Amino acid sequence: MLRYLLEKEFKQFFRNPFLPKLVVAFPILVMLVIPWIMTMDIKNIGLTVVNHDSGSAAETLIRKLESSSYFELDGVEQDYNRALTALEYSETDAIMEIPAGFEKQLLAEGGAPVQVSINAVNDTKGTLGASYLSALCAEFSREFAAGNAQAMSATVPNIEIVTQNRYNPYQDYKIFMIPALMVLVLLWLGGFLPALNIVGEKEKGTIEQINITPVSKFMFIFAKLIPYWVMGLLVLTVCMLLTWAVYGLVPQGSVWVIYLFSILFIFAVSGFGLIVSNYSDTMQQAMFVMFFFMLIFMLMSGLLTPLRSMPEWAQYFTVINPPRYYIEMMRLVYLKGGTLADLQTQLWALVAIDAVLGTWAVMSYRKRD
């Protein structure tokens, strides 16, 4: 009986002129395009320098800022008010004011203040821009001190902090996002397609033919889930191959752990999709409901923002969110080389969620004569 049900499901899938193309194109587009545009790396920040000093140190600092990929020099002004007007009209993003006597103060005291004004309408851009400026000025200060140690009366500090970036040594935001994007692909394909399955049969009237057969509810739902298991694992394989070929990123841990968790995750999101489909009367209704829940799942999964940054009440809700555990697994295995022993919490959480959603999907399906 299961064999014929699966044959029906696969025939329905391949007869659809759109779905096979979507399953192929969606993961390719996501993995090739999204990592380049979904980034927290802020570059080309517009910077205007107000220079009141005629010394070579100020010129060296300006050249250093100009050569950085983080800043785009919009101009060097003598009048601060003109630069402030440009900031107010969003013609520049930041102003650095170098005071008169900048070089003399550096030589005499080992340091000199500069004023930075940031357009903080975009808080993230403003905060990161100020951080980048601070880092570049600190680097310039060390280089200037090393090159003028004999001429400086102040003692050059001899304590230096050496930072080691573990798991992402070049601080490439794509490395952080790519494993999560694989989760996103499986979440949307594994959730939306099942949600449109049963309700699609309701609209076509083919569900009535199933209702008069002796097929059990469990067998019917199980036959609905298996094609999405197969599709999800194939899509995951395509994503992993693209990640290796394009970005050179390979799992630091076991691939089999990834596939084990993928089976559990696909079961969870597909089961949820079938639940929505069971309760929906039209495909439009199912799409709206799934879109609402997919946004909630995505925003409360830790994909874009850390879970600890959420309010405490929101963190409690993430306990029942399947993507949360799958994203934690992907980043731990892909980037840190985590093992199954490190993932016991995530493993049993997904097993429990699968049990609840699977039972709910079977119980919510009503066979009507």
From TrEMBL:
<feature type="transmembrane region" description="Helical">
    <location>
        <begin position="256"/>
        <end position="276"/>
    </location>
</feature>
<dbReference type="InterPro" id="IPR047817">
    <property type="entry name" value="ABC2_TM_bact-type"/>
</dbReference>
<keyword id="KW-1133">Transmembrane helix</keyword>
<feature type="domain" description="ABC transmembrane type-2">
    <location>
        <begin position="126"/>
        <end position="368"/>
    </location>
</feature>
<feature type="transmembrane region" description="Helical">
    <location>
        <begin position="21"/>
        <end position="38"/>
    </location>
</feature>
<dbReference type="InterPro" id="IPR051449">
    <property type="entry name" value="ABC-2_transporter_component"/>
</dbReference>
<keyword id="KW-0472">Membrane</keyword>
<feature type="transmembrane region" description="Helical">
    <location>
        <begin position="175"/>
        <end position="199"/>
    </location>
</feature>
<protein>
    <submittedName>
        <fullName>ABC transporter permease</fullName>
    </submittedName>
</protein>
<dbReference type="Pfam" id="PF12698">
    <property type="entry name" value="ABC2_membrane_3"/>
</dbReference>
<keyword id="KW-1003">Cell membrane</keyword>
<dbReference type="GO" id="GO:0005886">
    <property type="term" value="C:plasma membrane"/>
</dbReference>
<feature type="transmembrane region" description="Helical">
    <location>
        <begin position="226"/>
        <end position="250"/>
    </location>
</feature>
<feature type="transmembrane region" description="Helical">
    <location>
        <begin position="347"/>
        <end position="365"/>
    </location>
</feature>
<keyword id="KW-0812">Transmembrane</keyword>
<feature type="transmembrane region" description="Helical">
    <location>
        <begin position="288"/>
        <end position="307"/>
    </location>
</feature>
<dbReference type="GO" id="GO:0140359">
    <property type="term" value="F:ABC-type transporter activity"/>
</dbReference>
<comment type="similarity">
    <text>Belongs to the ABC-2 integral membrane protein family.</text>
</comment>
<dbReference type="InterPro" id="IPR013525">
    <property type="entry name" value="ABC2_TM"/>
</dbReference>
<keyword id="KW-0813">Transport</keyword>
